[in-house]
Specification:
Layout lengths: L4 E4 L3 E6 L4 E11 L2 E10 L6 E9 L4 H11 L6 H18 L17 E3 L3 E2 L3 E6 L5 H14 L14 E5 L4 H15 L8 E5 L4 H15 L3 E5 L1 H5 L6 H14 L3 E6 L15 H5 L2 E9 L5 E11 L7 E9 L5 E8 L14 H12 L4 H10 L6 H10 L4 E4 L2 E4 L20
Parallel strand pairs: 8-12, 8-13, 9-10, 9-11, 11-12
Antiparallel strand pairs: 1-2, 2-3, 3-4, 4-5, 6-7, 13-14, 14-15, 15-16, 17-18
Helix pairs in contact: 1-2, 3-4, 5-7
């Protein structure tokens, strides 16, 4: 047999022998008790057996499965199957153990700034997440983000940096429900539904199991964003499982495009800063936003307060959106529209602000003051911070705060309102 022609991805390896019409896919690689296991598929173009010859779980580290497969395949096609299977196993084990080639870090161009697909909600080249209580509108938000990326429209009040087709992977609803939502979003934005730009698939298996098919779809349709709704079902097991969560985000990386995932808020969180399940969700995501919702007293609208709870570079300023929903007498959606608004219009939202933003807020409302004055105003808002903490925060953000005759004030030309969403340095969080 000629040497195999390998193609290596993060969690799947493909080996081909074009002259012999044979291809082997080693997929869903995993370690178990010191051995490397996988799902192996053998295909051929040789008639009358053209197509799939065999597919099953396979232990790459053991000798017996190699012999069994070689003998079974040899009964149908006269080839040196022992050599074929041996090559696939040896090359797979070697690749798994060696990993990616090393690089000289001095030759790598550093990232200058965070690149966004849809600023400030979806970053390029990684996974971004939104999480909230059930019934908050997070799936609507995710679909609105997908529509924005697919059309170039500011559906969520911001424009995407580029346009691309979107693949929406859904474990919770169905195509009809999302089609109704998409039409309502388009009606609310006054645009036509984009043809062949938002692709939908109802998922059954976990994201790990369906990864090969998803990667195929990404290539076939030129997908530039994948939406995962929702993370708990995509994980395919216990939400608290660190192993499954790590594998899930490793799978996202194999897509080769940005991922926006939807998740639920932690069940027993007192500060609501975390999504439900393993801490590795927060650790693995590049960017995460929490959505708080509050129904308005008048009208069929809902206020959404968005808080950036995780960012690898810098936290983003809180955002506010008003969700306006129009329905017919039968309750079917007719229009859905998002409008930018001040997040502080939500009762109690101020408790979500960082200490930096709390200081900006009280100085804007009351004017400059010394540290003790600012602390007293913070205590009046039920925000507890020591004088040393406040003094340190004021000194850290010299481009925001300045000390004058009346105490600590703002450099007004450098400070935007909370509803403008300008980014803040990560060190500004409590």
């Amino acid at each position: 047999m000629n040497p195999a022609q390998p193609t290596f991805l993060l969690d799947s390896y493909r080996f081909s022998w074009p002259e012999d019409g044979i291809e082997i896919l080693v997929d869903r690689l995993r370690e178990h008790r010191g051995e490397l296991q996988c799902e192996m598929s053998v295909r051929t173009t040789i008639p009358p057996y053209a197509g799939l010859l065999r597919q099953a779980n396979f232990n790459l580290s053991a000798a017996r499965p190699r012999t069994e497969w070689a003998n079974d395949l040899g009964r149908r096609i006269d080839l040196d199957w022992h050599d074929v299977i041996e090559q696939a196993c040896v090359l797979s084990l070697r690749r798994w153990r060696e990993g990616e080639p090393i690089v000289d870090l001095t030759e790598v161009e550093p990232r200058q700034k965070e690149a966004f697909l849809l600023p400030p909600f979806i970053v390029e080249g990684a996974a971004s997440g939104i999480f909230a209580d059930g019934g908050t509108g997070k799936s609507l938000f995710a679909l609105a983000a997908a529509l924005s990326v697919a059309t170039g429209e500011a559906i969520l009040g911001v424009y995407p940096e580029r346009l691309c087709p979107v693949l929406y992977l859904d474990w919770e609803w169905d195509a009809e429900a999302h089609a109704e939502r998409l039409q309502a979003l388009c009606a609310g934005a006054g645009i036509d539904p984009p043809k062949e730009m938002i692709w939908y698939r109802h998922e059954l298996a976990s994201a790990l199991e369906s990864a090969p098919t998803v990667r195929q779809l990404i290539g076939q349709h030129g997908i530039g964003l994948v939406v995962v709704d929702s993370l708990g079902f995509a994980r395919g097991g216990e939400p608290e499982s660190a192993e499954l969560t790590i594998k899930l985000f490793a799978t996202f990386r194999t897509y080769g495009v940005p991922v926006l995932f939807v998740d639920h808020v932690a069940k027993h969180s007192t500060d609501r800063q975390h999504s439900f399940g393993s801490v590795y969700t927060r650790n693995s995501a590049r960017l995460m936003w929490r959505i708080d919702a509050q129904d308005e007293v008048i009208g069929s609208s809902r206020l959404l307060g968005l808080v950036n709870t995780k960012s690898n570079l810098r936290l983003q300023r809180p955002r506010g959106l008003r969700l306006l929903i129009g329905a017919d007498d039968d309750g079917r959606l007719q229009t859905v529209r998002f409008e930018s608004c001040d997040p502080l219009s939500m009762v109690g939202f101020e408790k979500s602000l960082t200490l930096r933003d709390q200081l900006i807020r009280i100085i804007k409302a009351n004017g400059p003051g010394e540290v003790e004055d600012l602390r007293a105003r913070l205590l009046g808002l039920d925000v507890k911070a020591s004088t040393s903490t406040i003094r340190g925060k004021l000194g850290t953000f010299k481009g925001v705060f300045a000390h004058g005759e009346s105490g600590w004030g703002l450099l007004e030309n450098r400070v935007a309102g909370l509803d403008e969403g300008d980014p803040v340095d990560r060190s500004g969080s409590l």
